[in-house]
Amino acid sequence: MKKPKKDFAKEALKQHKALVGKISITPKARLKKKDDWSTFYTPGVGAVASHLAKHPEDMRTMTMKRNSVAVVSDGSAVLGLGNIGPNGALPVMEGKAVIFKEVADIDAFPIVLDTKTPEEIIETVVRIAPGFGGINLEDIKAPECFYVEAELKKRLSIPVMHDDQHGTAIVVLAGLLNALKVVKKTRKAQVTIVGAGAAGHAVAMLLALDGFTDIRVADREGIINTRRKNLPTHKRALAKLPSTRSAKTLAEAVMGSDVLIALSGPGTITPAMIASMAPRSIVFALANPVPEILPEDARAAGAAVIATGRSDFPNQVNNALVFPGIFRGALDANVSDITDEMKLKAAHALAKLIKHPTATNLIPSVLDPHVAPTIARAVRK
C-alpha cells in the first residue's frame, strides 16, 4: 500500500505560524556584566566607530560585513506565483536566508521592497550596501532584473548576483554536462531553450560561454532571431547565439533537437514535440511547481534523460545548490564581482560531484554536504 504524500502546503502554513517566521538574530557578543556593556556598546564602541570612519577597509575584520548578504526582492516574480508583491515575497526570502545559514554559515537578511521601479530598487540597495558583504537579488521580473543587476554591479564594489538568472544557469549547465555523458553526446548537440526570461537568458548565455555551438531560444512569439524587429536588449544577445538551424515556430525548433530546456510554464511542451526530437534526447522541464511536461509523459514520448525543478522527481534542478557556495567563496576571497569564469568553474565542479552519472542521477542533492564547500572552492580559485 502506497504511503500518502505529505501535505506540505498545510504543514508549511502550520509551521510558519508556530515559528512566527524562520529566522532570528543571535548575538556573538553577550552582555552578562557591566564591562560587557562598556566594551560592546558605550563607551567602547565609540573607538571602533571612529576607527572605521577613518579606515573603512577594516569593516570586514571588525563588523558583520565579512559574512553578511542582503537577499533583496520586490516580489514581482516570486517562484511560479508571479507578481505577488513584498508581503508574498518575505517568506521566500526568509527561506533563502535559512538556506544561506544552514548550508554555508552566511548571515543573510531578507529585504523586501515596496516598489516596482528599477531605479528605486537600485537606489535602495546602494544606500544599504555598506552594511553587507554581498547582494543576492531574488524574484525580480524580467527585463527589469537585467538592468537592476547591471547597474548595481557598476555602482557597488561587493559581489551582486541575481540568483534566478545565474544560480539556475549554473545548475542547468552542471546537469546538462552529465546528461550528455549519459547519452554519449557532446557540446555540438542541438539545444533548444523555451523561455527568454531571467533564467532562460542566463542559461543560454552560459551554455554559449561553455562552448555549446548550436543554441536556439524561443519566447511567446516564437524563435528569437535577428530578423525580428524591436527586440529588447537582452533578446538581441539571444538572437546572435550560434546555431546551424533555421526555424519559425517552437515545434520546428524542437524537431531534431538533442536537448530541450524549458523555463516557461505548464503545458508549453507537448508529447508530440518530444517525439520529434533526436534519438537519446534530453529534456529539462523546469517550470515550478508544474513542469512544462510531466516526466512520465516525456519519457513515454521518447526522452532518454529528464530533469525538473521538483524534489519529488529525479534530477531536481534547484538553484539552492549554487547560491550558498557561490557567496561563501566570494565572501572568503573578498572579491568585488562574481564573474563568468566563476560561474563556469562552479558548474563544472558541481557536475564532477556525480562520479558516474545515470539517467536518474545527474545532479547532487541539496542535502549533499559536499556541494557548498566544493562550489566555494571553485569560486575562490
Which architecture of the largest domain per CATH? 3-Layer(aba) Sandwich
**What order do the strands of the largest sheet run in, or round the barrel if closed?**
7-6-5-8-9-10
Mean pLDDT: 93
The number of distinct β-strands equals 10
Total domains, how many?
2
Shape assignment: elongated
What would you report as the Rg, rounded to the nearest angstrom?
A: 22 Å
In N-to-C order, the SSE pattern is HHHHEHEHEHEHEHEEHHEHEHEHHH
Specify the oligomeric state.
Answer: single chain
Determine the strand fraction and express it as a percent band: 5-15%
Distance between the termini: 51 Å
What is the class of the largest domain in the CATH system? Alpha Beta
Task: List low-pLDDT spans.
Answer: none
Helix content: 40-55%
Major sheet attributes = 6 strands, mixed
Structural class: alpha/beta
Q: What would CATH call the homologous superfamily of the largest domain? A: NAD(P)-binding Rossmann-like Domain
For this entry, give a set of tags.
381 residues; alpha/beta; Rossmann fold; 2 domains; 6-stranded mixed sheet; elongated
